[in-house]
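User: Here's a chain of 373 residues. Predict its fold as C-alpha cells.
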Amino acid sequence: MTTETQVTGLSIRHARPEDLETLVELEERCFDVDRISSRQFRYLLKKGNSAILIAEKNGVVLGDVVLLFSRATSVARLYSIAVSPDARGKGIGLSLMKEAETEAWSHHRAYLRLEVRKDNHSAIRLYESLGYRRLGEFVDYYEDHMDAWRLEKSLAPDLHPDLTPVPYYEQSLEFTCGAASLMMAMKALKPETQFSRRLELRLWREATTIFMTSGHGGCGPFGLALAAVNRGFGVDVYITGEGTHLGDSVRSEHKKEVMRLVQEDMYEQLQSFGVPINPSGVTAKEIDDCLSRKGIPLVLISSWQIYKARVPHWVVVTGVDDSFIYVNDPFVDRDEGETLIDSIHMPILKEKFETMARYGRVGLQAMVVLYHD
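Assistant: Prediction complete.
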C-alpha cells in the first residue's frame, strides 16, 4: 500500500523489515524518553496484529505511526506516532492519523484509542480536532512520570453506546479475575468501596469454589454471588447446566467431590438469602435487560479467543449497543504490549461474545449481576 496525501509529494506506505534502522533513527530524533527499541520494532514488523505506516517524501522518511490490534475485540490502539522535528507543522501528523484510521477500519476495528502526554498540547489539539474524546487519564504513565490522557474515536459514526462508568481494577494475580471483576462492580454501585490487594485476596478466598488443572483455584458463580450478598448488594445469578460447575477442569475425583460439596453449601446459603438463580443462558438480550435494570453483570467467558488460554475468565459488562457488548477485562496482556486502555470498555461483537460466554465441554454459561440493594 502506498497512499498519496494532501501534503504535496508526501506518500504513506506500510513499513518493511528493511526500514528497521530508519525507524529507530526517527525514534531517537523524536523522543528523549519512552522510545521504541530496535528489538521492539523488529517484533512489531513481524507480528500479525500490528501495522507500521511510514510517511516519506522524495525517499526521505519524515514520520511513522504504529498501530496494535486487539485479538478478539474491535479496537485498534495507536501505540506511537512520530514526526521528524524538522518536518513538523506541515500536516504530516494529520496525514498519518487519517491513514491510521483508514488502516484500522480495514482491519474491521470500530474504535481507535491512544494515550497522549498531558503536556503535549499540539498533539492533543490535533486529536481533538479529529474527533477524539477523553476517556480518562493515567497518572504517572510515562518514564519521566508525566500523566497521560486516554482518548478514543469511533470510526463508525452510528455507534453511540451508553456505557456504565465502571471504575477499573487490574487483577494482580493470574487467578483473581473473579475477585477483580467483583471489585469493579462493587465500586460502580458503591463508590466508597476502596480498591486494594487485601480486598482482592479476601474476595478470592471467599469466592473460590474450584480447583484448576494446576496452581491456585478460581472463583465460581455461586462464590462470587455469595461474596456480593454478604456485602449488602442485590444479586441475580444466571447459570446453565447441571452438576458441578467447571468440574471438567479437573480429573481427580477427590477434587471434584470437594468442589461439589463447596458448591452445594454455597447454593444453600444463596437460597437462604432469597437470591434468584435463573437456569437461563447468557445472551446479549439478557445482558441488555440486566443493564436496563441498573445492574452490573459479571460474565464467565473462555479466554481462548482473546488470550489463547483454555481457562475460565470473569469480565464486567459495561454496556451494549446494536453491534457490540462492552467489557472491562481485569487482565492486561502486557506481553503483547497492551496497557490498561486496551482492557477498559472493550467492544466485542455480540455474536462473538455469545460464543465466548461458554466454557468447557458442557458449554457452561454463568452470569452474576449486582444491584444497589
